[in-house]
Amino acid sequence: MTIQGIGRPSVYHAVVVIFLEFFSWGLLTTPMLTVLHETFPQHTFLMNGLIQGVKGLLSFMSAPLIGALSDVWGRRSFLLVTVFFTCAPIPLMRLSPWWYFAMISMSGAFSVTFSVIFAYVADVTDERERSTAYGLVSATFAASLVTSPAIGAYLSAWYGDNLVVLVATLIALADICFILLAVPESLPDKMRLSSWGTPISWEQADPFASLRKVGQDSTVLLICITVFLSYLPEAGQYSSFFLYLRQVINFSSTTLAVFIGVVGILSIVAQTLFLTLLMRTLGTKNTVLLGLGFQILQLAWYGFGSEPWMMWAAGAVAAMSSITFPAVSALVSQSADPDKQGVVQGMITGIRGLCNGLGPALYGFIFFLFNVEFNSMDPIQGDYNIDPLPLDTLIPGPPFLLGACTVVIAFLVALFIPEKTSCSSSSSQLSLNDKPHPDSKESMSSLAGVHINTPLPGSDEESPPAACDADFEPLLHDSIV
Fold first, then answer.
1. Which domains are present in the chain?
2. What is the DSSP string of 215-232?
3. What is the pTM for the complete model shown?
4. Which residue of 100, 282, 329, 413 shows the fewest CB atoms closer than 10 Å?
5. Which letter, b or e, does each residue of 321-344 get, where b requires 16 or more Cβ atoms within 10 Å of its Cβ?
């Protein structure tokens, strides 16, 4: 057998691939806002919502099929395909903005790198190591998105957007070369040969398969409704939020990059230090309710806020609201029977993937509906101040306020979720302590506005062992620029 790559397959190969891909996209945070406004000066929010919405829906539809194919053809080839097509739009930013945004939309069909990475990690780790490995991948993802926007803003201010795009392109090419030359195949030949020629069933490739099972259990149904109502506004929020800060609140490029970094670091602290403390003292369900409460407050603050200091204060609250989904993962694993863990987690990831497509389009449409446009604004001029945006509405951010209303309904639904465990109380307590770490990526992916992908149906990470909750990895979720 010919060994491709350097060394044995390991988690560190996956970490490098993820870091390079999302670091390259993070560099483009500031230039992309400029190009977006200059390309669509009259309906900026609406077009941004449509672009991100199409991308999210294509990712949701394609993830199961790519996952099933990677089980047959191996992970390495699909890492190469997903990274190549996800990064393909980058050089087009300065060459042809229209083609750039068109390619971003269509690249959603391949923006499932995290899904393949999770399968890669599952191939090279055993069950007890997997949570730690996922946590390392998540932390790497978060680190790339905390640092890269600030670096991109600095390069843009001193050397111009062309250099930023060039650097991002070179990093993306380095990632592709790394996969070609250094990443070994993680799926053993025996497994590939035994599955080669096996037909891919529609159930394996059907993105709606898990959603059709939602109503089979009342507790799971309540959790799924809560996830949908709370994650829909979050997915929309982070698709347009940085554009909103730049154009409506008049954040400079530097301020925007610092904002991303600060809120990102606070989110990581909230999901590690505070989440563990809250789950031990308040319990899983009450932690979910507290997170939803923080989300309501930050969305309402964003909706009514019109001053920069309000955005900073609401950003700190938003960091605390990031505890919601790790806590939901723990609650899901407690509420389902041990032999139904994979099915239930698949439902949650399916709903989140659907929200990643619907949320951005909804926010863009609401901004358009309330006449939050840039018709009377001049093109962005670096870090210079611009006149406030004349709004035809008393509410600066109407979609955020509507989002707060949907989260209020999610909060009311969550009140009726019963707290129960599938194992003994001691085992349940262990599961509470062990669950939170992998999910730091959740808020950061959303925070950075990057590709949001879901674990693949049929892959190892979505099929935990039918044992006690203590051995179950929480739901992990990726995202976009």
1. 11-192+204-471 (1.20.1250.20)
2. GGSHHHHHHHHHHHHHHH
3. 0.66
4. 282
5. bbbbbbbbbbbbbbbbebebbbbb
